[in-house]
Design a protein that fits this description.
The chain is an all-alpha fold. It is built from eleven helices and two strands, in the order ααααααααββααα.
Protein backbone atom coordinates (compact mmCIF):
# COMPACT_ATOMS: atom_id res chain seq x y z
CA UNK A 1 0.00 0.00 0.00
CA UNK A 2 1.40 3.38 -1.03
CA UNK A 3 1.54 6.39 1.28
CA UNK A 4 -1.30 8.00 -0.70
CA UNK A 5 -3.45 4.89 -0.28
CA UNK A 6 -2.71 4.83 3.46
CA UNK A 7 -3.71 8.48 3.78
CA UNK A 8 -6.95 7.73 1.93
CA UNK A 9 -7.81 4.90 4.33
CA UNK A 10 -7.06 7.07 7.37
CA UNK A 11 -9.25 9.91 6.05
CA UNK A 12 -12.16 7.60 5.15
CA UNK A 13 -15.50 8.76 6.55
CA UNK A 14 -17.61 6.35 8.58
CA UNK A 15 -20.88 7.18 6.82
CA UNK A 16 -24.29 5.62 7.41
CA UNK A 17 -25.15 2.32 5.69
CA UNK A 18 -22.08 2.70 3.53
CA UNK A 19 -19.77 -0.26 2.89
CA UNK A 20 -17.49 1.09 5.61
CA UNK A 21 -20.32 1.43 8.10
CA UNK A 22 -21.60 -2.09 7.41
CA UNK A 23 -18.07 -3.46 7.70
CA UNK A 24 -17.73 -1.92 11.18
CA UNK A 25 -21.02 -3.53 12.24
CA UNK A 26 -19.71 -6.91 11.10
CA UNK A 27 -16.44 -6.19 12.92
CA UNK A 28 -18.40 -5.47 16.10
CA UNK A 29 -19.97 -8.93 15.97
CA UNK A 30 -16.59 -10.54 15.29
CA UNK A 31 -14.98 -8.70 18.23
CA UNK A 32 -17.74 -9.68 20.66
CA UNK A 33 -17.73 -13.32 19.53
CA UNK A 34 -13.94 -13.38 19.91
CA UNK A 35 -14.14 -11.93 23.43
CA UNK A 36 -16.71 -14.55 24.37
CA UNK A 37 -14.70 -17.52 23.10
CA UNK A 38 -11.46 -16.25 24.64
CA UNK A 39 -13.10 -15.72 28.04
CA UNK A 40 -14.97 -19.03 27.83
CA UNK A 41 -11.65 -20.80 28.40
CA UNK A 42 -10.77 -18.77 31.51
CA UNK A 43 -11.88 -18.79 35.14
CA UNK A 44 -14.89 -16.86 36.37
CA UNK A 45 -12.63 -14.44 38.23
CA UNK A 46 -10.72 -13.63 35.04
CA UNK A 47 -13.97 -13.24 33.12
CA UNK A 48 -15.29 -10.70 35.62
CA UNK A 49 -12.08 -8.71 35.72
CA UNK A 50 -11.64 -8.59 31.94
CA UNK A 51 -15.27 -7.60 31.31
CA UNK A 52 -15.09 -5.17 34.22
CA UNK A 53 -12.05 -3.41 32.82
CA UNK A 54 -13.59 -3.28 29.34
CA UNK A 55 -16.80 -1.88 30.82
CA UNK A 56 -15.00 1.32 31.83
CA UNK A 57 -14.53 2.27 28.17
CA UNK A 58 -17.85 4.12 28.24
CA UNK A 59 -16.81 6.20 31.24
CA UNK A 60 -13.55 7.03 29.46
CA UNK A 61 -15.63 8.19 26.49
CA UNK A 62 -17.80 10.39 28.72
CA UNK A 63 -14.74 12.08 30.24
CA UNK A 64 -13.14 12.51 26.82
CA UNK A 65 -16.26 14.09 25.30
CA UNK A 66 -16.69 16.47 28.24
CA UNK A 67 -13.09 17.64 27.93
CA UNK A 68 -12.33 17.47 24.22
CA UNK A 69 -15.00 19.45 22.41
CA UNK A 70 -15.31 22.62 24.49
CA UNK A 71 -19.09 22.22 24.79
CA UNK A 72 -19.58 20.22 28.01
CA UNK A 73 -23.34 20.81 28.27
CA UNK A 74 -23.72 18.98 24.96
CA UNK A 75 -22.01 15.89 26.37
CA UNK A 76 -23.43 15.47 29.87
CA UNK A 77 -24.00 11.75 30.62
CA UNK A 78 -27.78 11.82 30.26
CA UNK A 79 -28.27 9.91 27.02
CA UNK A 80 -29.22 6.27 27.50
CA UNK A 81 -25.82 5.03 26.32
CA UNK A 82 -24.05 7.30 28.80
CA UNK A 83 -26.24 6.13 31.68
CA UNK A 84 -25.57 2.59 30.47
CA UNK A 85 -21.83 3.35 30.61
CA UNK A 86 -22.12 4.49 34.23
CA UNK A 87 -24.12 1.44 35.31
CA UNK A 88 -22.22 -1.22 33.35
CA UNK A 89 -19.12 -1.52 35.59
CA UNK A 90 -21.35 -1.82 38.66
CA UNK A 91 -23.41 -4.53 36.96
CA UNK A 92 -20.30 -6.49 35.98
CA UNK A 93 -18.46 -6.38 39.30
CA UNK A 94 -21.54 -6.88 41.51
CA UNK A 95 -23.26 -9.28 39.11
CA UNK A 96 -26.50 -7.67 40.18
CA UNK A 97 -29.41 -9.56 38.68
CA UNK A 98 -31.57 -6.44 38.59
CA UNK A 99 -28.95 -4.29 36.85
CA UNK A 100 -27.79 -7.08 34.57
CA UNK A 101 -31.30 -7.81 33.33
CA UNK A 102 -31.90 -4.07 32.96
CA UNK A 103 -28.86 -3.78 30.70
CA UNK A 104 -30.23 -6.53 28.45
CA UNK A 105 -32.66 -3.80 27.34
CA UNK A 106 -30.36 -0.79 27.57
CA UNK A 107 -27.78 -2.55 25.40
CA UNK A 108 -30.23 -2.13 22.52
CA UNK A 109 -29.67 1.63 22.79
CA UNK A 110 -25.97 1.08 22.12
CA UNK A 111 -26.81 -1.13 19.14
CA UNK A 112 -29.21 1.50 17.78
CA UNK A 113 -26.49 4.16 18.15
CA UNK A 114 -24.11 2.03 16.09
CA UNK A 115 -26.68 1.44 13.37
CA UNK A 116 -28.24 4.93 13.34
CA UNK A 117 -24.94 6.75 13.74
CA UNK A 118 -26.17 10.11 12.46
CA UNK A 119 -24.28 12.09 15.11
CA UNK A 120 -20.88 10.78 13.98
CA UNK A 121 -21.46 9.87 10.36
CA UNK A 122 -18.65 12.24 9.28
CA UNK A 123 -16.14 10.80 11.75
CA UNK A 124 -12.96 9.51 10.16
CA UNK A 125 -12.20 5.83 10.51
CA UNK A 126 -9.27 5.40 12.94
CA UNK A 127 -9.84 8.96 14.19
CA UNK A 128 -10.40 9.81 17.84
CA UNK A 129 -14.10 10.71 17.39
CA UNK A 130 -14.78 7.35 15.75
CA UNK A 131 -12.85 5.26 18.26
CA UNK A 132 -14.29 7.00 21.33
CA UNK A 133 -17.80 6.41 19.97
CA UNK A 134 -17.50 3.02 18.30
CA UNK A 135 -15.69 0.79 20.78
CA UNK A 136 -17.57 1.85 23.95
CA UNK A 137 -20.90 1.34 22.18
CA UNK A 138 -19.82 -2.08 20.91
CA UNK A 139 -18.89 -3.11 24.45
CA UNK A 140 -22.02 -1.60 26.01
CA UNK A 141 -24.06 -3.68 23.59
CA UNK A 142 -22.06 -6.89 23.91
CA UNK A 143 -20.97 -7.20 27.55
CA UNK A 144 -24.44 -7.92 29.03
CA UNK A 145 -25.01 -10.60 26.39
CA UNK A 146 -21.56 -12.10 26.97
CA UNK A 147 -22.27 -12.21 30.71
CA UNK A 148 -25.40 -14.24 30.07
CA UNK A 149 -23.58 -16.61 27.71
CA UNK A 150 -20.76 -17.12 30.25
CA UNK A 151 -23.19 -17.79 33.07
CA UNK A 152 -22.18 -14.65 34.98
CA UNK A 153 -25.70 -13.27 34.72
CA UNK A 154 -28.94 -15.20 35.05
CA UNK A 155 -31.89 -14.08 32.99
CA UNK A 156 -34.92 -13.68 35.22
CA UNK A 157 -38.39 -12.80 33.86
CA UNK A 158 -39.25 -11.46 37.31
CA UNK A 159 -37.02 -8.51 36.41
CA UNK A 160 -39.31 -7.36 33.59
CA UNK A 161 -41.21 -5.06 35.96
CA UNK A 162 -38.08 -3.49 37.47
CA UNK A 163 -36.53 -3.10 34.01
CA UNK A 164 -39.51 -1.17 32.67
CA UNK A 165 -39.91 0.87 35.87
CA UNK A 166 -36.25 1.87 36.09
CA UNK A 167 -36.05 2.67 32.39
CA UNK A 168 -39.08 4.93 32.38
CA UNK A 169 -38.07 6.44 35.72
CA UNK A 170 -34.65 7.40 34.34
CA UNK A 171 -36.25 8.69 31.14
CA UNK A 172 -38.68 10.85 33.12
CA UNK A 173 -35.90 12.25 35.32
CA UNK A 174 -33.82 13.09 32.23
CA UNK A 175 -36.81 14.82 30.63
CA UNK A 176 -37.08 17.19 33.59
CA UNK A 177 -33.31 17.73 33.44
CA UNK A 178 -33.79 18.77 29.81
CA UNK A 179 -36.49 21.24 30.80
CA UNK A 180 -34.40 22.68 33.64
CA UNK A 181 -31.26 23.05 31.51
CA UNK A 182 -33.18 24.70 28.68
CA UNK A 183 -34.96 27.10 31.03
CA UNK A 184 -31.61 28.10 32.56
CA UNK A 185 -29.94 28.46 29.14
CA UNK A 186 -32.82 30.60 27.84
CA UNK A 187 -32.87 32.81 30.92
CA UNK A 188 -29.12 33.38 30.68
CA UNK A 189 -28.90 33.31 26.89
CA UNK A 190 -26.20 30.68 27.24
CA UNK A 191 -25.05 28.62 24.31
CA UNK A 192 -22.35 27.68 21.86
CA UNK A 193 -21.69 29.06 18.36
CA UNK A 194 -24.03 32.03 18.91
CA UNK A 195 -27.03 29.74 19.53
CA UNK A 196 -28.85 29.28 22.83
CA UNK A 197 -28.16 25.82 24.23
CA UNK A 198 -30.99 23.32 23.78
CA UNK A 199 -30.79 20.02 25.66
CA UNK A 200 -32.54 16.97 24.22
CA UNK A 201 -31.10 14.09 26.20
CA UNK A 202 -32.79 10.75 25.57
CA UNK A 203 -34.59 12.65 22.80
CA UNK A 204 -37.48 13.38 25.15
CA UNK A 205 -38.27 16.73 23.49
CA UNK A 206 -38.07 15.80 19.83
CA UNK A 207 -36.95 12.94 17.56
CA UNK A 208 -33.56 13.09 15.88
CA UNK A 209 -33.63 10.06 13.57
CA UNK A 210 -36.15 8.46 11.17
CA UNK A 211 -37.13 5.70 13.61
CA UNK A 212 -38.07 8.11 16.40
CA UNK A 213 -39.77 10.34 13.84
CA UNK A 214 -42.21 7.50 13.14
CA UNK A 215 -43.21 7.41 16.82
CA UNK A 216 -43.54 11.21 16.91
CA UNK A 217 -45.75 11.19 13.83
CA UNK A 218 -48.13 8.83 15.65
CA UNK A 219 -48.04 10.65 19.00
CA UNK A 220 -46.73 14.19 18.33
CA UNK A 221 -46.12 15.22 21.92
CA UNK A 222 -42.71 15.73 23.55
CA UNK A 223 -41.90 13.18 26.25
CA UNK A 224 -45.05 11.10 25.67
CA UNK A 225 -44.16 9.92 22.17
CA UNK A 226 -41.34 7.75 23.53
CA UNK A 227 -43.88 5.69 25.48
CA UNK A 228 -44.74 4.01 22.18
CA UNK A 229 -41.49 2.12 22.62
CA UNK A 230 -42.72 0.45 25.83
CA UNK A 231 -44.93 -2.19 24.12
CA UNK A 232 -42.06 -2.98 21.74
CA UNK A 233 -39.65 -3.39 24.65
CA UNK A 234 -42.19 -5.57 26.48
CA UNK A 235 -42.52 -7.90 23.46
CA UNK A 236 -38.72 -7.99 23.15
CA UNK A 237 -38.45 -9.00 26.81
CA UNK A 238 -41.01 -11.76 26.35
CA UNK A 239 -38.88 -13.13 23.52
CA UNK A 240 -35.67 -12.82 25.57
CA UNK A 241 -37.23 -14.64 28.51
CA UNK A 242 -39.20 -17.16 26.46
CA UNK A 243 -37.07 -20.20 27.51
CA UNK A 244 -37.36 -19.21 31.18
CA UNK A 245 -41.11 -18.58 30.87
CA UNK A 246 -41.64 -21.98 29.22
CA UNK A 247 -39.58 -23.71 31.92
CA UNK A 248 -41.60 -21.90 34.61
CA UNK A 249 -44.88 -22.94 33.00
CA UNK A 250 -43.72 -26.58 32.86
CA UNK A 251 -42.75 -26.53 36.54
CA UNK A 252 -46.14 -25.13 37.49
CA UNK A 253 -47.87 -27.77 35.37
CA UNK A 254 -45.92 -30.54 37.13
CA UNK A 255 -46.72 -29.15 40.58
CA UNK A 256 -50.46 -28.91 39.92
Amino acid sequence: MTRLEKDKVISMKWGTFTATHIATLVLAVVLLVAIYYILKKTSQKVQIWVLGILSFSGIVAIIYNLAAWGEPLEYLPFHLCSVNALVLPIAVFTRSKTLGNLLLVWCLGALAALILNHAVTDAEILGAAFNIFYFPHVLEFGIPIIMVKLGLLKKDPKCIGSTLAITMGVYTAVHFINLALNAWAQANQFGYSDAVFQANYMYSLEPTNPLLQVFYSILPYPYWYMYLIVPIVFVYLLIVYLPELIALAKRKAINT
